Amino acid sequence: MDIGVLIDDLYSLRQQRLELSKSVEAFKLQETALRELVLEKLDALKLSKASGSLATCGVKETVEPYVEEWEKLFEYVRTENRFDLLHKRISAPAWRELRELGALVPGTSAITVRDVSLTKSSRG
């Protein structure tokens, strides 16, 4: 297959995905608004569970962390050796910036990730 045809097919497919993604985001916003409305209605009715003809909805609560003071958290992680509290990834932009300044971050190395850059042609 001709490379130009492949590139055009890739561009068309990406555009379709982006359009679908916009639709998905719109659905997510509607879903979030309905979810909040259902919670408000359940609270107003003093119910923890209710049903429609298609589904049953129950209130569930979970306790999630919220960091108020990052320095205190980092100090705790270091002194208690609780690195499991953190996600195991580093910031690529900050790492690249240090690398460009000549600073090597211990325990890391560089890998090259290949991809293609795709832009709309001025001819199409």
Walk me through the structure.
This protein has helices at 3-44, 70-80, 92-100; strands spanning 49-51, 56-58. A two-stranded antiparallel sheet has the order 1-2. It is 50% helix and 5% strand. 0% of the residues are buried. The chain has three helices and two strands; from the N terminus they run αββαα. The mean pLDDT is 94. The chain has one domain (3-100). A hairpin with a 4-residue loop joins β1 (49-51) and β2 (56-58). By secondary structure, the chain is mostly helical.
Which properties best describe this structure?
flat, 50% helix, two-stranded antiparallel sheet, 124 residues, mainly alpha
Q: Secondary-structure blueprint of this entry?
A:
Blueprint: H1 3-44, E1 49-51, E2 56-58, H2 70-80, H3 92-100
Antiparallel strand pairs: 1-2
